[in-house]
Amino acid sequence: MKDKKIGFAMTGSFCTFRRVIDELRILAETGATILPIMSPIAYETDTRFGKAQDFINEIKAITGHDIIHTIVDAEPIGPKNLFDALVIAPCTGNTLAKLAGGITDTSVTMAAKATLRNQKPVIVAVSTNDGLGGSGKNIGHLLNVQNLYFVPYGQDDPVHKTNSLVADMSQITETVHDALMGTQRQPVIF
Ligand SMILES: Cc1cc2nc3c(=O)[nH]c(=O)nc-3n(C[C@H](O)[C@H](O)[C@H](O)COP(=O)(O)O)c2cc1C
Q1: Atom in ligand 1 nearest the alpha carbon of residue 108
Q2: Ligand 1 pocket member 95 (CB < 6 A)
Q3: Region of residue 147 (phi > 0: left; psi between -120 and 50: alpha; otherwise: beta)
Q4: From the CB of 41, is ligand 1 less than 6 Å away?
Q5: Among the atoms of ligand 1, which is closest to the Cα of residue 45?
Q6: Residue pLDDT, tens place only, 17-42
Q7: What is the pTM of this model?
Q8: Domain range holding 105?
C-alpha cells in the first residue's frame, strides 16, 4: 500500500485505544502514508485507559503527522481529495449513529462525509456496548451504504455484555486492503 494515502480516525472507545494503536503501527509498516484524525473527545479526554497527550504523542510518532481534530482541519479532505481510504477505528455507537443519520459535527464525521463524497472507501471498526441494542439499526443501515466497509466484528463478552460488539482490530490492515479493491472482508461477523 506504499502509494496509498489513508486517513485513520479514532473516536471515544478508550478501552480499545491500545489495541488500535498497535494495529495503526502495522498499517504504517505497509508504507502507506497515514494522516491521523481524532474526534474532539478522543483528542481531549484523559481516562483510566490512558492520558490523551500520551496517545497523541504516540500517534504522531507513528504517522509523522499532526492529528486532525477539528472540522476546519478536516474540511479540505473533500475538495483536495486527500484520502484513498478512511479508517474509523475504534468507531463508537455515537459516531455510528451520526454516520447513519448523515450528521457531520466532528472532525471524524466530516472526514467520513468528505471521503464518501469522493467515492472512496470508509472502513469502520465498531466498538460499542449497544451493538445488538440501540446501535443495531445503525450498523444495519451502514451495511447497505456504498463504499462503506466493516472490519469483521463479533460479540466480545456475550455473557456479561450481551449487546456488546467489537471489531477484530487485528484485521484492520487486511480489511483496508480488501476495501481498496472494492471488496468486503469476510466473514464480516464472527
Ligand atoms: C472511559 C470511557 C470509555 C468509553 N467507551 C466507549 C466504547 O467502548 N464504545 C462507545 O460507543 N462509547 C464509549 N464511550 C462513550 C463515548 O466516548 C461517547 O459516546 C462520546 O460522545 C463519543 O464521541 P465520538 O464518537 O465523537 O468520539 C466511552 C466513554 C468513556 C469516558
Answers
A1: 26
A2: yes
A3: left
A4: yes
A5: 31
A6: 999 999 999 999 999 999 999 999 99
A7: 0.99
A8: 5-180
